[in-house]
Amino acid sequence: NAGVMQNPRHLVRRRGQEARLRCSPMKGHSHVYWYRQLPEEGLKFMVYLQKENIIDESGMPKERFSAEFPKEGPSILRIQQVVRGDSAAYFCASSPKVTDTQYFGPGTRLTVL
Amino acid sequence: SQQGEEDPQALSIQEGENATMNCSYKTSINNLQWYRQNSGRGLVHLILIRSNEREKHSGRLRVTLDTSKKSSSLLITASRAADTASYFCATGMNTGGFKTIFGAGTRLFVKA
């Protein structure tokens, strides 16, 4: 059973471009979570999704950020018109039930030039 | 301030010693999880303890949970240089939608 997969592992974008981060949960997991981590800090919750539904997006900036988890395919975190402050590591986690252990992917490190 | 706050922020010990990290939180929780993160890497899940549990063990790890004090501790016994990492507690709670909140972490350095 493969773990949580994220790609790309590293992503470089110029200011104003779009960034698309992908997350494939573990097999059998229908709950996906996205977190952002700045250097030397803890993880900040962004959004929690189940298949085709956003359950909690209270940690997501109101503008430029969106997330989806379609019926087929990976979950996508999309950042439009990136700014330097978006540079961070973005981690995805999945779990079989919402109250269960969350298993984390290796993260995508976004650098905005 | 954050729901989960670890204490101390940083800890440096000799190999073979025990390391204790604490986590305090503010609101009622469903569960509390401890994770380890090596520099620049993803998070590795260590232990999940539910709100109706008081103590759990896994190898050299021991986690306690005191819901009356809203605190948890992670004890690593007989530490090794490979235990050097950041350790995070994460509280899971039902707040009209389940959410997991991470603390800022304790940076543990084990000297060989």
Topology:
The complex is a heterodimer of chains A (113) and B (112).
Chain A: E1 5-7, E2 10-13, E3 19-24, E4 31-37, E5 43-50, E6 53-56, E7 65-68, E8 75-79, E9 88-95, E10 103-104, E11 108-112
Parallel strand pairs in A: 2-11
Antiparallel strand pairs in A: 1-3, 3-8, 4-5, 4-9, 5-6, 7-8, 9-10, 9-11
Chain B: E1 5-7, E2 10-14, E3 19-24, E4 31-37, E5 43-50, E6 55-58, E7 61-66, E8 71-76, E9 85-94, E10 98-102, E11 106-111
Parallel strand pairs in B: 2-11
Antiparallel strand pairs in B: 1-3, 3-8, 4-5, 4-9, 6-7, 7-8, 9-10, 9-11
User: What series of H and E elements makes up the topology of chain A?
Assistant: EEEEEEEEEEE
Outline the biggest β-sheet of chain A.
Answer: 7 strands, mixed
Outline of chain B: globular
Shape of chain A: globular
Rounded to an integer in angstroms, the radius of gyration calculated over CA atoms of chain A is: 13 Å
Low-confidence stretches of chain B: none
List the uncertain runs of chain A. Answer: none
Q: Tell me how many strands of chain A there are.
A: 11
End-to-end distance of chain B, in Å? 35 Å
Query: For this entry, what is the oligomeric state of its chains?
Result: heterodimer
Instruction: Please count the beta strands of chain B (DSSP E, at least 2 residues each).
Output: 11
Number of helices of chain B: 0
Strand content of chain A: over 45%
Q: Main sheet of chain B?
A: 6 strands, mixed
Helical residue percent band of chain B:
under 10%
Biggest interface goes to:
A-B, 23 and 23 residues
Terminal Cα span of chain A: 37 Å
Mean pLDDT of chain A: 92
Task: Output the structural class of chain B.
Answer: mainly beta
